[in-house]
Amino acid sequence: MSTTGIDSWAVDLAEVTTIYPFQGSEVLMVVIGVVLWLLWHVWQIKHENDYFKEKLTHASEDNIRKSIEEG
Description:
Order of helices and strands: H
Helix content: 55-70%
Distance between the termini: 79 Å
Structural class: mainly alpha
């Protein structure tokens, strides 16, 4: 099964126009990949900051309760 229209590689490749699917859309795919990668990093940073703020708040409340009960 051929997706490029090439039946045999025993040809002069200078005469072949496309040798793989989606030729010419490399820049678009790189831009989409970089944008998704950056969005993932932004989401990950926000998620981790929220998680650590929640843990810090919880730890602070526990320390206050322990101090009150011991004192």
